[in-house]
Design brief:
This protein is mainly alpha-helical. A hairpin with a 5-residue loop joins strand 4 and strand 5. Helix 1 crosses helix 5. It is flat, with a radius of gyration of 33 Å.
Length: 460
C-alpha cells in the first residue's frame, strides 16, 4: 500500500513538472499564419480564374475544330484545321502550366502541414516517454521520502486528486497521438495524389508540345503549296492515304500467336475501349511489351501435369516450373479442353529464373487468372468460351484487367501504375524485384503508337 501511495506522489510531481514543460505544447496540425493563408488563397483564386478562362477558350476551339473537320477537304480548310489544332494545343499547355502552379502551391501547403504534424507527434511522444522513464524510477523511492515531501495530510489528498486529473490529461494526449497519426496518413495520401496530378499535367504538356510541332510541320507543307497547284494538294492527300494504308497493313506482333495487321489490332483495341474506357494506344503498348518480353523468355509446352514441368517449344529441352501445378494446371486443362486444343501442344510462357511460367496468349494471363475473368471476357466479346490465344479476346481481356487496375482514368500516372501492376502486382516503386522499367517502357510505347500510328489515321 505504501509503495502505491509513493508511486502516486512521485508521479504527481513528475506530471506537474511536465505539464508546464514545452513538450506538452505543439502547433496544431493545420497551423498556418493568417497572412500566409490569405496570400495562398488569393493566389489560388487568381489561378482558378485564369484557368476557367482558358478552359472556356479551349472549349471554343474544340467546337471550331469539330465544325472545320466536317467541311470538304481543301488546302485552306486543312490549314484552318491545323491552325485551330495548334491554337488549342497551345491553350492546353497554358492551362496545364496553371494547373501545375496551383498544384505546386498546394503541395507546399501539404508539406508544411505534414511537417507540423510530424513535429507535434514527436513532441507528444517525447513527453510521454519522459513520463514512462520517470515512473520506472518509482521503485527506488520510499515512504519516508513521500512523508517528507508532503507537509500536511491535506496536501497529500490534494496531490492524489491532482494525480487523477492529470491521468485523464495523459489519456487525452494518447488519444491525440492516435488522431495525429491518422491525420498524417491522410495528409500524406493527399500529397501523393497531388504529386501524381502534377506529373500527369507535365506529361500532358510534353504530349501537347509534340502535337504542336507535328501540326506546325503539316501546316508549313500546306502553306508551301500554291493555291493554284491543286495537283500538289491532291498528291499530298494521296501521300497521306498511302501512309495510312501502310500503317494499317503493318504487322502487329502478338505473343504466342500469329502477327495481325495493325488495322485489325487497332479495331480490337477500340472495341475493347468502348467496354472498358482504357485507351487503345495503352492496350496496344501493353501487348507490344508482352510480345517483346516473350522474345526474351521464350515459349514452352506443358509436359507433366503433376509437377508442372514442360519443354521448350523450339528446343524440346526439359524445363521445370513451366506451370504451378497446384494453381494453374487444372484451369489450363479445363480451358484447352473447352477450346478443343491439345494442352501439350499449346504454347505458354516459359518461367523466368524464379517463379513459374504458364501465361497464355497475347494478354499473358496465367490460367487461374483467366478463369477468374472468363465470364466477364465472354460477356464482352459475346462468347460462352473466350479464347486466350484469339487476338480479339486477348485484347478485351487485357483491357478489362487494365481498367480494373485503374488505367481507365487515362492519366499518365494511372496508366503507368496500371502497367506496373499488370506486370508485377504492385504499383511502380523502387522495391525488388524491379517493376518501374516496365511501366516506363509501356508509356513510351503508348506515346509512340498514339502519335505515329493512331493520330495519322484520324480523319482518313
Amino acid at each position: 500500500m505504501f509503495k502505491n501511495i509513493t508511486s502516486k506522489i512521485i508521479v504527481i510531481l513528475t506530471l506537474i513538472s511536465l505539464v508546464g514543460s514545452p513538450y506538452f505544447y505543439a502547433a496544431g496540425p493545420n497551423t498556418v499564419y493568417a497572412s500566409e493563408l490569405s496570400i495562398a488563397e488569393d493566389q489560388k483564386k487568381v489561378l482558378e480564374a485564369e484557368l476557367a478562362k482558358l478552359e472556356a477558350e479551349i472549349a471554343q476551339k474544340t467546337s471550331e475544330l469539330n465544325s472545320q473537320k466536317g467541311q470538304s477537304a481543301s488546302i485552306s480548310g486543312d490549314i484552318k484545321v491545323l491552325t485551330t489544332q495548334i491554337e488549342k494545343a497551345k491553350l492546353n499547355i497554358k492551362a496545364k502550366n496553371l494547373v501545375i502552379s496551383k498544384l505546386t502551391s498546394e503541395i507546399n501547403e501539404k508539406n508544411k502541414t505534414i511537417t507540423n504534424l510530424d513535429d507535434k507527434l514527436f513532441k507528444t511522444k517525447e513527453s510521454l516517454a519522459q513520463l514512462i522513464r520517470k515512473t520506472h524510477q518509482i521503485d527506488d523511492a520510499n515512504f519516508v521520502h513521500v512523508i517528507l515531501t508532503n507537509s500536511t495530510v491535506s496536501d497529500f489528498y490534494n496531490d492524489v486528486d491532482t494525480f487523477s486529473s492529470i491521468q485523464e490529461s495523459i489519456k487525452e494526449s494518447v488519444d491525440e497521438i492516435k488522431e495525429v497519426k491518422g491525420i498524417t496518413v491522410n495528409e500524406k495520401e493527399e500529397l501523393r495524389k497531388k504529386q501524381d496530378q502534377e506529373l500527369d499535367a507535365k506529361a500532358e504538356i510534353e504530349s501537347a508540345k509534340r502535337k504542336v510541332e507535328t501540326s506546325e510541320s503539316e501546316k508549313q507543307k500546306l502553306l508551301s503549296i500554291s493555291k493554284n497547284k491543286e495537283k500538289e494538294y491532291q498528291a499530298l492527300l494521296a501521300e497521306r492515304q498511302k501512309k495510312a494504308a501502310q500503317i494499317r497493313s503493318a504487322l502487329f506482333a502478338l505473343r504466342d500467336t500469329g502477327a495481325i495487321p495493325f488495322g485489325d489490332a487497332l479495331k480490337y483495341a477500340e472495341a475493347a475501349s468502348l467496354k472498358t474506357g482504357v485507351r487503345p494506344a495503352f492496350v496496344l503498348a501493353i501487348l507490344t511489351q508482352e510480345s517483346n518480353l516473350g522474345k526474351n523468355v521464350g515459349s514452352c509446352y506443358l509436359s507433366d501435369p503433376l509437377t508442372g514441368a514442360g519443354v521448350g517449344a523450339n528446343t524440346g529441352t526439359t524445363i521445370l516450373n513451366v506451370m504451378k501445378p497446384t494453381r494453374d494446371v487444372t484451369p489450363f486443362l479445363n480451358i484447352t479442353k473447352a477450346l478443343g486444343r491439345d494442352p501439350y501442344k499449346t504454347r505458354v510462357s516459359c518461367p523466368w529464373t524464379v517463379g513459374y511460367g504458364g501465361a497464355m496468349g497475347p494478354a499473358q494471363f496465367i490460367p487461374s487468372t483467366w478463369a477468374l475473368f472468363q465470364a466477364r471476357i465472354g460477356a464482352a466479346v459475346g462468347k460462352t468460351v473466350p479464347d486466350p490465344w484469339n487476338p480479339a479476346d486477348a485484347f478485351m481481356a487485357s483491357s478489362i484487367y487494365l481498367g480494373d487496375l485503374g488505367a481507365n482514368a487515362k492519366t499518365y500516372t494511372a496508366e503507368r501504375n496500371a502497367a506496373c501492376r499488370y506486370y508485377s502486382g504492385r504499383s511502380c516503386d523502387a522495391a525488388s524485384p524491379a517493376n518501374s522499367f516496365y511501366g516506363n517502357q509501356v508509356m513510351v510505347k503508348a506515346a509512340t503508337i498514339q502519335e505515329t500510328m493512331i493520330d495519322p489515321l484520324q480523319g482518313l
